[in-house]
What does this fold into?
Amino acid sequence: QVQVVESGGGLVQPGGSLNLSCAASGFTFNAYFIRWYRQAPGKEREKVATISSSGIVMDYGASMKDRFTISKDNAKDSYYLQMNSLKPDDPALYLCNLYTPFGGHDYWGQGTQVTVSG
It folds into this structure.
């Protein structure tokens, strides 16, 4: 059973930083992509960034690249989203998505909540 688990969310003051983690397990395919999305109340789900299973950064959502960095730790086989200079419009449920464009695999985690206040 494929599992995708996010962690690292929390409450941070404007201008602060958070480092979100995504760990995926329970699958046998080798090539896939990890995408971070965010979902704020009343807004459409928004893509934040994409990275390949080999650690190649594929893209960032509009206006994300200057403050957010997606990465992979090969030793831990985990993926991260470093978020800096957080703003009042960044709060959302941040979701990790594992998918394969041609294999039909598409798995989501439960998300980790990010709140910016203070």
Q: What stands out?
A: The two ends are 40 Å apart (CA to CA). Residues 100 and 107 are 9 Å apart (CA to CA).
